[in-house]
Amino acid sequence: MPLLTKDDIRRQSWFAWVCLAALVGVAAWFWSMDKRGAAMGTAAALVGCLGLILPPRERMEALPWRLRSLPRALDAAPVLATLLSSPGYGLNWFYGANPYDEAVHLLSGALAGAVFAALLQVDGVRRSTGQLAAAGVAFGLALGVAWEIFEWATDLIGNWTDTWTDVALTALGATVAAALAGTRRDARSSAAGLWRRASGPSG
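The structure corresponding to this sequence follows.
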């Protein structure tokens, strides 16, 4: 069997590939500005994103079943997170007097929270919006703390205020995204129920 079949290609998210093309553009932009380190870093992130979304995970039995069942629409999440943060590293926006750092942590937390909620929901178990939000809080806090540890280990960390606000914003984004996932599911279920009642008995 080929590494990628026609069915594998059809399952790919077109939006994720548009985001990848935008990431190529960002890398080329950095290169044209003679920011070679930023361009190479963005290219490396691009390769990492490709490694996440290109493989046909649906038929890779070595992967956990939740990952194999993750909707392809969420493939764009890691690419979007990379697009969000690339100017921060390439143009030093993280260190300016602006809300860019806070926005990146909030939105990246939301993207990660959406993926986390989808991984929870693929088992078909009904969870309330509150349960998903609580799970999002725990996940967001763990993700935020892990990222701050990485920043500390690589000397990227700022002051204490920067650290706890980054963790809080990441957790907030993940919580909101997880809660919205539950709200959307409930809305779809309600709409389906109304449609069935309106249609009446068949035959």
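The mean pLDDT is 89.
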